[in-house]
Automatic annotation (TrEMBL):
This is Response regulator transcription factor. The lineage of its organism: Bacteria, Bacillati, Actinomycetota, Actinomycetes, Bifidobacteriales. PANTHER family: STAGE 0 SPORULATION PROTEIN A HOMOLOG, TRANSCRIPTIONAL REGULATOR-RELATED. It comes from Bifidobacterium phasiani. The modification 4-aspartylphosphate is found at residue 57. Keywords: Phosphoprotein. It comes from the Bacteria. Residues 142-232 form the HTH LytTR-type domain.
Length: 240
């Protein structure tokens, strides 16, 4: 079952969006758990990264969905966002919060259906697989494809991502086990570094050159295995 949050303070819009979700579910055989919020601040203050789709009004005089989604993105990289508005004035800002769609009110079923298609496909796709961690006393959901590498120094585990670095409450060994249950493109460069092979630009000497410019040393005992794993990761692309 997919969880959908509708954040809009207009009862007519709440009813319209809820009805569109239910119609889509009936026609596509999808099961949705839909919750309506009429206050953006309340939605964000109680946010837990467990939603699949957020449908939010972006008109500043109402909910200010752009501001809501900026705050949500500080906690959740994986949730899909649909922005709705009376005008296209804020469409460009939708890119800044990684919105899947921007649709005008009142949305037709055809437009809404295409938007929800994209959200569901993305939410279930390989690129949107994610892991939830505890950082700074709060839960945060991180997309696996945005993790560059993980390091561990003095029992401190830090996840380096495309959107910033996060110290997490989890040992690197436990985190490695968790990642390997979801994705097999993570490999140890040494005892202190767990590397996402998708972000390895090259193996340069005894270092892994990463997409963010960092160079991570590959320990002598792990060099052969790391090179093998990297070659295997590249093999499908090379074969194509």
């Amino acid at each position: 079952m997919m969880r959908i949050a509708i954040v809009d303070n207009a009862p007519a819009c709440q009813e319209r969006l809820t009805g569109l979700c239910r119609r889509y579910g009936e026609e596509h055989g999808e099961s949705f758990d839909i919750t309506v919020f009429d206050d953006g601040d309340a939605f964000v203050s109680g946010y837990v990264p467990e939603w699949d789709v957020v449908i939010v009004d972006v008109d500043p005089d109402d909910v200010d969905g752009i501001g809501v989604m900026r705050r949500v993105r500080a906690m959740d990289d994986a949730v899909e966002a649909v922005l709705v508005s009376m005008s296209d004035e804020y469409a460009a800002e939708g890119y800044t919060v990684a919105a899947a769609s921007y649709i005008l009110k009142p949305p037709s079923y055809e437009t809404f259906s295409r938007s929800l298609d994209r959200c569901i496909h993305a939410s279930r796709g390989h690129a949107r697989r994610s892991v939830t961690v505890v950082t700074g006393g709060h839960e945060r959901r991180i997309r696996l494809d945005e993790i560059i590498y993980v390091d561990s120094v003095r029992h401190r585990t830090v996840v380096h991502t495309m959107l910033g670095n996060f110290q997490i409450v989890c040992s690197i060994v436990r985190f490695e086990d968790l990642l390997n249950e979801l994705d097999h493109s993570f490999a140890r460069a040494n005892s202190g570094y767990l590397v996402n092979l998708a972000h390895v630009i090259a193996i340069d000497g005894h270092d892994a050159a990463m997409s963010n410019g960092d160079r991570l040393p590959i320990s002598r005992p792990r060099r052969t295995e790391f090179r093998r794993r990297f070659s295997e990761y590249l093999a499908p692309g090379a074969a194509a």
